[in-house]
Amino acid sequence: PKEVVDVLIEKGWRWFSRLQRLDEGTYGVCRDCGQQIGPGRLEAKPDAIYCIDCKSAREARGDVGPESDGI
């Protein structure tokens, strides 16, 4: 079914994005403030691109789109 394919494509892109950030040396670095993302957050959400403080600030502003945290 199309839904299954869509989920697999999304997961593939998330893995690709993580590998790309590892290669660039930016994995685990917050895109907003440049600080390290806490290990607990990365363990819970390996594709996190924002530290918990910046993610919380984005959510408070209503920024919850597809680029709000992830790929």
Could you walk me through the main structural features you see in this protein, from its secondary elements to its overall organization?
The protein has 71 residues and is mostly helical. The chain is 54% helix and 0% strand. It has three helices and no strands. It has helices at residues 2-24, 39-44, 52-60. It is globular. The model has no long low-confidence stretch (mean pLDDT 87).
Name the features:
71 residues, mainly alpha, 3 helices, 54% helix, 0% strand, globular
Cα separation of the termini: 23 Å
Please bin the fraction of helical residues: 40-55%
Largest sheet: none
Can you tell me the overall shape?
Answer: globular
Q: Whole-number average pLDDT? A: 87
Oligomer: single chain
- The computed structural class is mainly alpha
- The ordered H/E elements are HHH
Content of β-strand: under 5%
Task: Give the topology, please.
Elements lengths: L1 H23 L14 H6 L7 H9 L11
In brief, what are we looking at here?
The protein is an all-alpha fold and 71 residues long. The protein contains 3 helices and no strands.
